[in-house]
Backbone:
């Protein structure tokens, strides 16, 4: 495929009401604010979008709302986090009908496959669609590690065009380039390794915390693209305590709370997640409010 993605593709939250029902209008408003900041793509129904806590119809409704607000201005990729290969194929085909520009494909959920099974899952889903695909590697959360050697094996499948590397090991960026060359567009998916990954040479960033601070997030990315490393480091030092919110098991609650405090949405989450309380809530609010008080001009 000739298409190549690059730039900031935020993973967007699924905005909910207090009763845990979908708030599609709030989701659309947040996406509009992100588009205005200069992002290059949108990814609804990823991990931050609480994909696995949504009903099948809800996922499709969220994606449809995001496709409508994007209106062809930037690509929309839906997360695919299904427990079986057959369900992933069904979901991807529904995404084609909704008009997405691609998908971000995760390994089959709830099962730790061996390399043969993981590769077969990815190939089978890819062969069922003409959509371009970003493969999501997050062994910390999903127990399936797609190594550089495995990505090299998948390189003959033409609609695999990008990968989201979230192993937490920035050395993977160089290993991927050495093994796969420029075959894939490489995105980082770990917020508080964004500068390190940018220095090593990436094409994009699936941003998390930055959805609460879209202007600063985009400014930081643009500085790395222009090689303005001193200015990027200065901004990164302010940003890093906030970016740490992306790498905790409660990253959805933390980032949704940041989105709320920045006036871009609400903190409500889908059970079994619960809104933060007590000392933990106070601690996270302190991080967010300190960031807001010291927000670069």
Residues:
């Amino acid at each position: 495929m000739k298409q190549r993605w690059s730039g900031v593709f935020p993973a967007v939250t699924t905005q909910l009401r207090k009763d845990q029902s979908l708030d599609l209008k709030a989701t659309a408003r947040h996406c509009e604010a992100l588009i205005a900041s200069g992002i290059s793509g949108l990814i609804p129904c990823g991990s931050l979008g609480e994909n696995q806590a949504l009903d099948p119809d809800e996922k499709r409704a969220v994606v449809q709302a995001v496709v409508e607000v994007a209106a062809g201005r930037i690509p929309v990729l839906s997360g695919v986090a299904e427990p079986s290969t057959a369900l992933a194929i069904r979901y991807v085909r529904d995404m084609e009908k909704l008009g997405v520009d691609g998908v971000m494909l995760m390994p089959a959920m709830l099962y730790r496959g061996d390399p043969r099974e993981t590769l077969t899952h990815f190939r089978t889903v890819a062969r069922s669609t003409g959509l371009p695909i970003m493969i999501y590697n997050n062994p910390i959360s999903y127990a399936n590690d797609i190594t550089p050697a495995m990505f090299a094996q998948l390189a003959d499948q033409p609609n695999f065009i990008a990968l989201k590397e979230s192993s937490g090991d920035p050395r993977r960026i160089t290993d991927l380039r050495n093994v796969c060359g420029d075959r894939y567009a490489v995105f980082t998916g770990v917020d508080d390794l964004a500068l390190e990954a940018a220095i090593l040479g990436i094409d994009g960033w699936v941003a998390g915390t930055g959805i609460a601070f879209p202007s600063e997030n985009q400014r930081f990315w643009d500085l790395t693209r222009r090689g303005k490393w001193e200015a990027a480091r200065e901004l990164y030092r302010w940003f890093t305590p906030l970016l740490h919110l992306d790498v905790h098991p409660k990253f959805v609650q933390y980032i949704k709370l940041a989105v709320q405090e920045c006036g871009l949405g609400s903190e409500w989450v889908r059970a079994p997640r619960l809104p933060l309380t007590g000392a933990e809530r106070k601690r996270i609010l302190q991080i967010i409010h300190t960031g807001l008080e010291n927000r670069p001009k």
Remarks:
- The longest helix spans residues 278-293.
- The two ends are 41 Å apart (CA to CA).
- The chain is about 45% helix and 10% strand.
- Residues 7-237 form a domain with the TIM Barrel fold (CATH 3.20.20.70).
